[in-house]
Amino acid sequence: MKKLLLFTFLFCSVLCLQNSFGQNVPEKKITMRLDSARFHDFVKQVESQTEYFFYYDAVRFDSLSLDLNVENQTIREVLDQVFKGSEFEYAIDGQKRIYITQGPRIITQLQPGLFDPNAVENGAVTYAGPEDGVREKLLSSAESKVHEIGIKKTKITPGNSTLTGYVRNAITGEPVIGAAVYIESPSIGVTTDALGLYALSIPRGKQLVRIKSFGMRETQRQVILYSDGKLDIEMRESVIALKEVSVKAGMDKNVVSTQMGQVKLTIKNLKQVPTVFGETDLLRTILTLPGIKSVGENSTGLNVRGGSTDQNLILFNDAVIYNPSHLFGFFSAFNPDVLRDVELYKSTIPSKFGGRLSSVLDINSRDGNKKKFVASGGIGLVTGRLTVEGPIVKDKTSFLLGGRSTYSNWVIKALDNPAYNKSSASFYDVNLHVSHEINEKNSLFLTGYVSDDRFRLYGDTLYTYQNQLAALKWKHTFNPKLYSVYTVSHSQYKYSMGASGLPLNSFDLKFNIQQSNFKADLSYVIDPRHTLDFGVSSIYYKLKPGTFTPRGAESLIIPDTLQPEQALESAIYIEDKFEVNPRLSITAGIRFSFYQYLGPKTVNNYLPGFPVDYIYENGTEKFGSGKTIKNYGGPEYRASMRYSVLDNLSLKLSYNTLRQYIHLLTNTMTVSPTDIWKLSDKYVKPQIGDQVSLGLYRNFRGNKIEVSLEGYYKNIKNFLDYKGGDSLIMNHNIEAAVLNTKAKAYGVEFMVKKMTGKLNGWLGYTYSRTLLRATDRESVDAPNKGNWYPSNYDKPHDFTMISNYRFSHRFSVSLNFTYSTGRPYTPPIGKYYIDGAQRVYYADRNQFRIPNYYRTDLAMNIEGNHKIKKLAHSSWTLAVYNLFGRKNPSSVYFQTVNGQVNGYQLSIFGQPIPTITYNFRF
Amino acid sequence: MKYNLLKFSFFILLLCVDSCIEPFSPPEVNSDEKYLVVDGFLNAGSDTSKIELRRTQNTNDGSAISVETGAKISVEMESGTAYSFTEKGKGAYFLPPINVNLSGKYRLRIKTAGGKEYMSDYVPVTTTPPIDSLGSVYDAERDAMVIKVNTHDPTNKTRFYKWKFEETYQYRAAYYSTLVIDTKKNEIVYRNEDINLCWKSAFSTNITLGSTIKLSADAIRDLPINVVPISTNKFYIKYSILVKQFGLTQDAFEYWTALAKTTQGTGSLFDPQPSQVTGNIKNIANPKELVFGYFSASRETSKRIFLTPNRGLYPRCDPPDTLSVADALKASGIMLISYQGERMDSVLTTSSFCADCRAQGGTNIRPPFWQ
Prior knowledge:
The complex is a heterodimer. By secondary structure, chain A is mainly β. Chain A folds into three domains: 2-109, 3-Layer(bab) Sandwich (Phage tail protein beta-alpha-beta fold), CATH 3.55.50.30; 146-238, Immunoglobulin-like (Sandwich), CATH 2.60.40.1120; 262-921, Maltoporin, Chain A, CATH 2.40.170. Helices cover 8% and strands 53% of the residues of chain A. In chain A, the strands form 13 sheets. Chain A has a 22-stranded antiparallel beta barrel. In chain A, strands 6-12-11-8-9 form a five-stranded mixed sheet, with no helix packed on it. In chain A, β4 (88-92) and β5 (97-102) form a beta hairpin. Chain A is globular, with a radius of gyration of 32 Å. In chain B, strands 2, 3, 4, 5, 6, 7, 8, 9, 10, 20, 21 and 22 form a twelve-stranded mixed sheet that branches. In chain B, strands 13, 16, 17, 19 and 23 form a five-stranded antiparallel sheet that branches. Chain B is globular, with a radius of gyration of 26 Å. The two termini of chain B are 44 Å apart. Helices cover 10% and strands 40% of the residues of chain B. Chain B is mainly β. Classes of the chains: A mainly beta, B mainly beta. At the A-B interface, β37, β50, β51, β55 and β56 of A face α1, β1 and α2 of B. β56 of chain A pairs antiparallel with β1 (21-23) of chain B.
């Protein structure tokens, strides 16, 4: 709007231009003394001393205070002095009007010869500065240049054409994701996709295309659109900071998009949240968002809206990661230096994702710097990390290599207790990301990731686990309306446990799961109102559920191997984004997933008519290699709708169904590294979930404050719980140890978010319940007599405050507070004597709760100076985790001592934990 | 395996610097409610039925098992015929053999002294075939004797089995005491009672179950019901085991299976989720009240075998002390073995553990069944 006004002024000035010529009266000189005066006073004085009249936006000069001492100077001299070093520019036209603008100066003259009839054929309407030098400069900048797009015609036919292209960072060449590309009249806009690509369908003719993205300097392009064409846009970062590119969707995305239950966090947001060991932690930050919980403090297993930890699809550059944590859950497996952003979908899950019920966590790494070599890193109390990046072929190919490792052993060694000295714990992870632009229409991305964890307890049991993945992504644009992404990936997760304490009992236990994945995702812009996403995907699973072998020659362990499992999961989907009118938009999709559990395998049979229990096992059935043992499949519906009630108020509704064919089996209270994944088979049915959610979104203060209120109700069929007392490790009848339950989850999430300004952060409150009930309510194994009971992670109230106050560009303080209801547990509540022995009896499952959880964290970020040219940019983070040292019990357990059952509570971070981290970048 | 998992939890402990484990006993967890425990069954054979009523206790209650006295117990047929039990002390109630209708259904009714009334579901009568044989085999790997049971039901009706046993063994004290102090006369006299050879009995504490549901014939072959390590010395002289066999309904079988799984361990960080196991008895007025135990109607069949594998070691003790007769008369709590050599002025003495087999819990009265 403001810009439009400026153009009106400009137009006025053009009309008056002719008249003003020749009035060459000697200028009045200005004399004034100002001391901390407001700009308004300055203007008044000048206007009273001269004939000049000011045009400016008073709001912008609110905070400007002036000290001025001039004597007999011209207006230009005075203004030069006033605006020297500021971002304001002034322009004076022939009518003695002064226009003060922020950013580009107003050009007060038209291009000479503009009204010469011969010149019209040049087509473009251009504005030129009064002086040749300025004009040159302006023309060379992309903003002022008029881009002619398409096949040039003398007469533009009415109608729409599509403008496509990439939005990139001018410095690093990285794509800018989620940037809003739009025109204001008529109001048409799109956002760039994961590759920075946009496709904007707008009326042909002269248009001003604006590009906005959080953390980037706003820019615009003047185009004359003749027909479909391409325009790549480079944007500059607006902040001078370390390599913390903050990319965010349009500011009003909260209200405008049809997506709901979607949260996007950039690396900058992540860095504000203090963590226990001082390092930016993706999963821990995710846990501060409404609707997301974990069982315990030491666990990074996410429970999203009442789902279990295995119901989250965790994608790292489109390849699955099975165990997203390090060091038994104390760290998340993602190196903060290589991350660009993470997007979490918890209610509207786009049709292109599937295979997990609760959420999709889409984690993207940055592309390497395409222009120059950069190194960055950090040193904390427990970990150190280093990232190097740079061009392989300038502007075409870049790499990003990041590594992280612990030197945490000293923490353990430093403890007084000699028992700990034999223990050790370490991990590392390495990321490699190579991006290559073949040509305008084709780009390739290669990602490699390896993580490794090992810990040894008391010198005799070594636990190790590894994640490995490789992904190759090819992005191909067929034409401006149709583009595609093909991904091939392979992920592997394995763990092993080696005990060598007693030579006779030494053993190795190993588990391994691999998946090979192919998918093709296409996007087709039918017309400005319809965008069609469609694609196919296929995953081949190969799982070795367990091998148990003797370790060393003396061991008497009898080797045991569980049969490998394999399966193929395929899906096809199509989804249409339909903008019915500017107020109403609808996204509807269907995904059809199909699952085959494949041989070779010998399957246990159970007596027909009896419960699936090992006591009723009855023979086996052999299936040959590649033979289908069991098929599952069905449609998944995805629909969402957004209705804008007001400009900054919208209502969203979504409905989802999802199917999950792979399950994590864990019947211990905490996530342990020996949890095993299990494919759906003849007995373990796929989990099927459906969710309906309703949300209200309102932005205040010019989109600076986002408020959202979401409610959801969710049903899950075939949710897995466990029968009392069965072990899951090396169990040949695993299907007999699991219990099919029906789950229902519902809740309300409230969030206020302010991500700009000196004070930023968010407040979130969630009320939620997750209840389970055995499918076979009559069975003896049905917990709580077949009635509803809370899940292990049912924590009704949850409140989080993340706040950050920026005192200056170099110093900020974060204060975070978390409260949640204690999680449920099942205590032994009595004992009795029956059939010749004492028995302990437990309360109904999960009817008691551990004490509520409160925690306050404080962190300070101190950045080095912002000189562009210096050896290293550095920053310090000082943080105190659990500032008040509250002993939050992370678990309770019971032990029988002399016939009495005693309870104990275990708090892991029961005292303030101060940390210091040094980050640097060369 | 489990051992290692338990140790794993120490890894967490190790990361919390000190004293992050604290006692945890929220008051609301230990309710004062003492629930009824019903232990027993209706004997459909020719033996007396016994039902014991007890009460649950708090987990940290160290006192003796509390029993429920003064209750009225009866079993009722579907037809309405009822038979009353009579109480014979210590919460035990007995019913003389009744003429059980094998095709009928029975339920248990309990009226406590406190006025609460409990009732079980109707249960069918399960027949129990006789035990065909008991066998024993030495397992070298475990260095233990394994007692096995064989049975079959030619009518293929029983299918679910539960066993209990009572084992009895003979053992000796290390030294033979021939002398005893006559406290009245304050002199040493010859002992006329054998306190060197004893019999000791123990009841099964594990729940042993078996099923033939997967088999084409209702036959149990060589099912191990007791594993006795040789190191217990139960097999040095003579060992006897009385195995009692009960046929169960499928429901009862599942109840005992669940109970066996759940109550063997207690919860630690990595232990599987516990679950609550209750049976088929309910408070009539308040069906939600917890009642423990499972009522079934079944015949009990039993078989006893004697084993003399002569495995193990003769018991050993420290060498006896030699005391003068005068000192020995003054000393208290000692056992006299015999006079020292030919001299009659001193005696060999030892502790009661080494010379009195009763000190180890057995009895020197020969059990009536002992052969």
